[in-house]
């Protein structure tokens, strides 16, 4: 079972590039972020014609996540539990029915910038960085719930977290950014310490591997990237891992997203 995650940065802008990549890469499941579309406006026929079932959790102009699957989906849920007042569309779950059923959680974790801190160094309540860290607390709680079920599952998407300095071409430029601040990295480590396997790092070591290059300042041409799109696998899912790769070349194509696809191959 090949499962991909791809922050497409707008379905309208990627209406040609995304189908072209799907035709080439042939993932069984694709978890999309930043579709930037309400559900009823998402161009389902582009993907249904390719054999995909389409499930979306969208909102107008911002955020939005989706699942495309060639395999049957069951128990689709939308929205990260823990805050009924949160209206941002950043989380979608479903069980993919293959040889081994896999619960997939597609996420678009808040960016968190600008970082606003109080005099004591804690995030300003209600600010964007505070929202990011609170969202990560809810993610931690949901992960604990899923782990208690002992079924294979994964959480994949744009985490907006640079886990370590080696995951950035210029780590010094990100030290005070919400993507790499100590609080962000600590929250990511707490999540990992529940027992997850970070799929890419289970297969590939060392610096120089990125999944995002900014549109500005020639970042792509200089390979000035960061790695912020991740697959976290539960212990039962990690046992099924065959491979995990980044489709870097997609960034150099016509009208690309600023992210590229990352995928896992599971024995499922």
What is the level 1 CATH name?
Answer: Alpha Beta
Structural class from helices and strands?
alpha+beta
Which residues form runs of ≥5 with pLDDT under 50? none
Going across the biggest sheet, name each strand in turn. 3-4-2-1-12-11
Topology:
Blueprint: E1 2-7, H1 17-25, E2 29-33, H2 44-48, E3 53-57, E4 65-69, E5 73-78, E6 91-96, E7 102-108, H3 128-148, E8 153-158, H4 182-192, E9 197-198, H5 199-203, E10 229-233, H6 235-238, E11 241-246, E12 262-266
Parallel strand pairs: 1-2, 7-8
Antiparallel strand pairs: 1-12, 2-4, 3-4, 5-6, 6-7, 8-10, 9-10, 11-12
Helix pairs in contact: 3-4
What is the gist of this entry?
The protein is of the alpha+beta class. It has six helices and twelve strands. Helix 3 (128-148) runs parallel beside helix 4.
